[in-house]
Amino acid sequence: MASADDTTGFLDESLMTKKPIKRRKEGDAPVAPVALGTRQRRGRERRAEILKVARKLFAQHGFRGTSLAMLAEIVGMTDAGLLYHFPSKNRLLLAVLEETDAAQESRMAGGVDTSDASYISAWAEFGKVLEDDPVLTALDVLISAEHLQTESDFNEYFRKRYESFRKRLVRSFEAGRAAGVFRKDFDPHTEAVLMLATLDGLRLQWLLSDGKISMADAMRYFIRHMEARIRVQTK
Question: The whole model's pTM is what?
Answer without folding.
Answer: 0.72
